[in-house]
Structures are given as C-alpha cells and as structure tokens.
Specification:
The chain has 256 residues and is an alpha+beta fold. It folds into 2 domains: 36-106, OB fold (Dihydrolipoamide Acetyltransferase, E2P) (Beta Barrel), CATH 2.40.50; 120-254, no CATH class. The protein has 10 helices and 4 strands. It has helices at 2-32, 74-79, 120-129, 133-141, 146-160, 166-175, 200-207, 214-218, 229-237, 240-254; strands at residues 36-47, 53-61, 67-73, 100-102.
Length: 256
C-alpha cells in the first residue's frame, strides 16, 4: 500500500514540474521582448486599393543614434498619437510625442515589391517580337486593341526585321497620315509601288500577309524566325518580284 502511495506522490511531483517548466518556456519570449523606443524622425502612410489608410511607416532615431523604420497598423499608430484619429494622416511634427515606444508584436513584415501586372497577350506579343512587355501594354493603354498592335508589330518586322517601327505605325493609323513612318536609313516607308498609303486597309494589305495576325501567335502556329523576305523585297524593289511571280504563273499555265 505504501509503495502505491509513493508512486502516486512521485507522479504528482513530476506532473507539477512539467506544468511549471512548460509555463516558463511559454512565458520566456514575452519576458525577453524589448519595446522599440526612439525619437520620431518621419511618418508616412500606406493605403489599400480603395485609398483607405491601413498602415503607417515610422522612422525612429534610436538611443544608439541609428535609425529604424517599422510598419505598424494605422489603428495602433493612432493610439500612439502618430496619426490623426479623424483623417488618419500623420500628426504635425510639433504634436508628435517626444519619445515613442513601439511593441514589436505590432510591427508588420515589410511587403515584398511586386511587378505591375501585365496582360497575358502583352507578354505573348513581347516574347514573340522581342519587345518589352511594358511597351506593348503601353500601346494597349493608349487605346489600341491587341489585334491592331499585333498587325503593327508584324508590319514592322516585315519591313525592318524588328519591332522598332510599331510605334510609328500605330501613330500613323491613329492620325491617318502614313507619310511620316521612317526606316532606319532615313527613307520613308512606302508601298511596293513607291506611293504613300492612304488608309490602314491599303497599308496592311500591301505590307503584311493573311497569316500575320494575333490568332496565329496565340495558337502557337507562327514562327518568329520566319520573316517575310518577299515583303521586304517588294518594299525595296518597287514590286518587281511580285510582277515576276505573276509572269511565272502565266507561263506555267501555258506550259504545264
């Protein structure tokens, strides 16, 4: 009977010790947490997508004369007297507390910088034509549809080998004046017969092919390395190749 009591006493002591050790371990982080204390150097706010102030960026001059910037919730910054409780804007410097202590538990992690979202089609066209996605996105933001942008990129590639003329081509389409599109050698871009286009349909028909459209790029059926040499030849050869091809077809018809 005495042995049973002894065993029960030992188990009870061990249980009490376990609870005490567990409590001490849990309390340790709280006891060793030191407030971030310093003199306020600057205060700025961050807003969400709706323009509502959500956080405050506070820079403190610490006792060791170093500075530290922390992000804290707007409500907590208001409690510290750093933001106006009505407007949630930074309090004037003369009204800011001389010294502020910030609870580390209230400090928010710094947000990772994120790239501006770019339309998937803009990325696709940029990759296909070797252009900056932001440039393609800029054309779209200027009011051009991706179909027209793709056609302009195609025409530029056909006549110059790259996308360098796309901006001029889009401007010409917008204004209706196609006389100011300049090639790299300083000459004006014209139709194969040397005349200046008078409308987009005429311009597109002369300097691109039916397969030069957005659909073949999206579907993956277009080859970015396969440039239209025949169109470039027409542009610089005043359409002679086109005429020769026509004669060849007539000759074949008469002599199978």
């Amino acid at each position: 009977m005495s042995n049973t009591k002894l065993l029960a006493s030992v188990l009870l002591v061990l249980a009490v010790l376990f609870v005490q050790v567990g409590s001490a371990a849990a309390a340790a982080p709280t006891q060793t947490t030191t407030p971030i204390t310093g003199t306020v150097q600057s205060i700025s706010t961050e807003t969400d997508a709706n323009g509502v102030v959500t956080t405050a960026m506070v820079t403190l001059l610490l006792p060791d004369q170093t500075t530290q910037t922390v992000r804290i919730p707007a409500a907590y910054a208001t409690d510290l007297g750093l933001l106006d409780p009505i407007t949630l804007q930074p309090v004037p410097p003369e009204n800011v507390p001389a010294e502020v202590s910030i609870d580390p538990a209230q400090v928010l992690p710094e947000e990772e910088p994120t790239e501006e979202s770019v339309h998937p089609i803009a990325w696709l066209l940029a990759e296909f034509f070797g252009e900056d996605p932001a440039v393609i996105e800029g054309y779209h933001e200027d009011g051009f549809g991706f179909g027209v942008i793709a056609q302009s990129l195609w025409i530029s590639k056909n006549v110059s080998g790259d996308a360098s003329l796309a901006d001029q081509i889009l401007q010409a389409k917008q204004s209706g004046d196609y006389s100011n599109i300049m090639l790299s050698d300083g000459t004006a871009l014209t139709l194969p017969d040397g005349t200046v286009p008078t409308n987009w349909g005429q311009f597109k028909k002369a300097l691109s092919e039916k397969k030069n459209n957005l659909g073949v790029i999206v579907s993956g059926h277009a080859d970015p390395e396969n440039s239209n040499d025949s169109l470039q030849t027409q542009q610089h050869g005043n359409g002679k190749d086109k005429d020769n091809k026509g004669k060849g077809r007539d000759k074949n018809k008469n002599h199978p």
